[in-house]
Amino acid sequence: MKVGHSGSTALATARPGGRLSSVRMQRRLHKILVYTLLFGLAWVFLLPFMWMISTSLKQSQDVFTFPPRFLPTSFEWRNYVRGWTIMPFNTFLLNSLIVTGANVVGNLLSCSVVAYGFARLRARGRDVLFLLLLATLMIPREVTIVPTFILFTKLGLVNTLLPLILPAWFGYPFFIFLLRQFFMSIPHDLDEAARIDGASSWRIFTNIILPLSKPALGTVAIFAFIGNWNNLLDPLIYLRSTEKFTLALALNLFRGQHLTQYNLLMAVSLIQLLPILIIFFLAQKYFVRGVTMSGMGGR
């Protein structure tokens, strides 16, 4: 009886260990599969970018060689200087900086004020107005192009940078929605404590809400920067003079005038892409936190 009892005890103690080892094995296999999938997807997305870098360092005759070579035979670093100086890209860069900077500032100011009103202030019809704001997100951009162009034409602003800047100072529905959701996740006890001390709504907004909303504001700034830095349609519609072109429109002009010089086109495109990569990696923490926390708010 003692032998049987000790045998069953040993079997009972062995089973949990076997289950634990199998669970660990399953977790390891799961991690291996996940990392393998992520590595494969990352390689798929990085391959065009790596090919772009490789093409920017090749000679013109090596771009269309068959079979194609991934690495250039000689690294032509001067392609970046030649491509940048073949057209007045310094002027185009300045125009892009003006348009993008004004759009980022305009979106941050206008959208944060409107979002604060929807999130913290009480007024009749507030929810109805917010629903109307969300409804504008369903209107296709193509529907508003012609009326907006007619409006700016009658105002005499065509062939200036103002049609690319002014809309940002009147709010963007998606940014207002994102900031409103983040503002609602901030405890209302802070507002009540500030009002007891005599703070006004504007002071609560500037001294409490905005300092606590850096992740959401950073997310809006990144979205606004990327969207305006790469914007081609609006400059194509409103700009006529070459000296007022932005970088995105200048690259399109470069492609039309220097069709066979893909190495120079890739070099200039890479220079234009660098600010987006730098800003995204520097503000990645705020970007992830802003997108994650903006959905936490409730009524």
Report on the architecture of this protein.
The protein has 299 residues and is an all-alpha fold. It folds into two domains: 2-45; 84-293, MetI-like (MetI-like fold, Orthogonal Bundle), CATH 1.10.3720. 73% of the residues lie in helices and 0% in strands. Helix 10 packs across helix 14.
Write out key terms for the chains shown.
single chain; 299 residues; mainly alpha; flat
Walk me through the topology.
Elements: H1 2-56, H2 78-85, H3 89-120, H4 126-135, H5 141-154, H6 162-165, H7 173-184, H8 189-196, H9 201-212, H10 214-229, H11 233-238, H12 247-257, H13 262-282, H14 284-293
Helix pairs in contact: 1-13, 2-13, 3-7, 3-10, 10-14, 12-13
Listing every helix as H and every strand as E from the N terminus to the C terminus, the arrangement reads HHHHHHHHHHHHHH
Taking the sheet with the most strands, its summary is:
none
Strand content: under 5%
CATH superfamily of the largest domain: MetI-like
* Mean pLDDT over the full residue set: 83
Structural class: mainly alpha
Total domains, how many? 2
Please, how many helices? 14
Query: Percentage of helical residues?
Result: over 70%
CATH class of the largest domain: Mainly Alpha
Counted beta strands: 0
